[in-house]
Amino acid sequence: MGRYTYNTAYSRPEQAILYDASKCTGCKGCQVACKQWNQNPSPVYSDDYTFPGSYESPLENDGDTFLHMSFDEHDGGPLGVKWAFGRVACHHCTHAGCVIACPTGACHHVDGGFVDIDPDKCIGCHYCQTGCPFNIPKHSERVGGKERKCWMCLDRLDAGRDPACVSSCTSNALQFGDWQEMVDIANARVDYLKPTYPDAVVYGEHELDGLHVIDVLQYGAEAVGLPVNPKIPLLRTGAEILRPATAVGAAATFALLAAARYNSRKYFRGVDALEYDNELDETFLVGKVNQKGFDHMPTRGDGEWTTKSRQEILEEVVDSEKVDDDNNKLYEGKNSKLKKLGSDTLVVSEKKEGDK
Length: 356
Hints:
The chain is built from 9 helices and 14 strands. It has about 350 residues and is α+β, with helices and mostly antiparallel strands. It folds into 2 domains: about 1-270, Alpha-Beta Plaits (2-Layer Sandwich); about 275-350, no CATH class.
């Protein structure tokens, strides 16, 4: 049975980036190249940036960061420590949750099998974030409240060049070419690594019917925070059925996706301790501080996370005397604020633009 695809009429053949973590030196040259080519801003002065306590910086993507390298340490390995590098960016899935969830068609497949977001069609609804099992699309007010992510440097591809990140790699950890060729190279590399790294895997050949970023991970997927068997939330079936409908169907699609977004709030998407308050339209994340200090990604640290109700969170906040009774200080910062409650509990509160 052939691989699932939404569009087989690509004018260029299916292509992919191959990332070989066993060759990666963690120089982050790809991360810088991505910023530069896409002209995305970065904090320059210390007053604009809080050191996260890790070589991994930033700790997660945002609307101006399409790619960052993750650094994770684990016990074990040939030298007693597993120093795992991961590439956190869009995987350009064949069976793409963002494409399914998008109500306007802004998220769509393009030549080569990649997934792009059309800013002219994007309404900033966040549904692509809900549909993505990797928590990749991010909202950016800087560009008018649109969702953004890696777009595989399609302008460079059209000019016959490799993506900026691939062109910057000095250790040949990144390659770009036809999809099947990249998969064959990845499988041959894993066969070579297996005697020394028994957990080595190819990630992306079969996941979600094939990703267009293929990873060679010598310590396995979990070591870099990737789900072993990524799945799209239950919004998929209803959205696919209702997508071709007319105005009435479109309204039903919006209602279904809104319900799915709420009901799937605890589905694993990089953060699995998430509490949503419908009345105040707030999202709370609660968890233990891990070895990275500020890192609130439970799959990329050693902290154990638990979900608490809004009332429990507010009681802890008030008891800690870190905020006023009206809870105003919970909203310090432009978009969100990481609050430390006691010695080992973190709360993230996200707010809309204009909230007091």
